[in-house]
Design goal:
alpha/beta, Rossmann fold, five-stranded parallel sheet, globular
């Protein structure tokens, strides 16, 4: 059986990447494709701890320990879900992958080169990375508008997100589809689907 295709969505929170990932999965399924829609952090033990840290704050954990948790979660996620789906010929649509770790933990001072080298060696390479670009201010405004209570988790600070955006820009290259996240949702979805369907050869 032919190996499936791996599509990763990246961007800061508020960019609409989760919405676009879900729209793409539905569009592919409507065309008869078998699709795995997934996200990171996953629901592994390491992933659940990372979600708690993002919500409650990063106190009590070193940067190295945090990166180790991301790698542990990603390893389990790939072994349990991503790799089997790709081997079965499915489309895998993933909301965040190791590019997020480079962007976010890199903004905290992590060695981006080391993370990239280890990640490329261990984890599957996406066929396409869809990067939805938005300014930190616009992203935070969207978050505060749509989230109950309007409270931002640990990573949602404007000065920090400015560093994250710069780190994403450093990564973006061939194999990345960079799109303005402020464009109409339907317009973005159509352009993403067109790029994804072009991978079928």
């Amino acid at each position: 059986m032919a190996k499936g295709h791996f599509i990763v969505f990246e961007g800061i929170d508020g960019s609409g990447k989760s919405t676009q990932a879900a729209l793409l999965a539905r569009a592919l399924e409507a065309r008869g494709a078998s699709v795995l829609l997934t996200r990171e952090p996953s629901d592994s033990a390491a992933g659940l701890r990372l979600k708690r840290l993002a919500k409650e704050g990063r106190k009590g954990i070193s940067l190295d320990e945090e990166i180790a948790l991301f790698q542990e979660d990603r390893r389990e996620h790939c072994e349990r879900s991503v790799n089997p789906a790709l081997e079965a010929g499915k489309w895998v649509v993933c909301d965040r992958f190791w590019f997020s770790t480079l962007a976010y933990q890199g903004a905290l001072g992590a060695d981006m080169g080391k993370i990239e080298q280890e990640s490329r060696r261990e984890f599957p390479a996406p066929d396409l990375v869809v990067y939805l670009e938005i300014s930190p201010q616009a992203g935070l405004e969207r978050i505060r508008k749509n989230r109950e209570g309007g409270l931002a988790p640990a990573y949602e600070k404007k000065d920090f997100l400015e560093k994250v955006v710069k780190n994403y820009a450093r990564q973006a290259g061939s194999g990345w589809l960079r799109l303005d996240a402020l464009r109409p949702q339907e317009e973005l979805a159509g352009e993403i689907l067109k790029a994804v369907l072009a991978l079928k050869g």
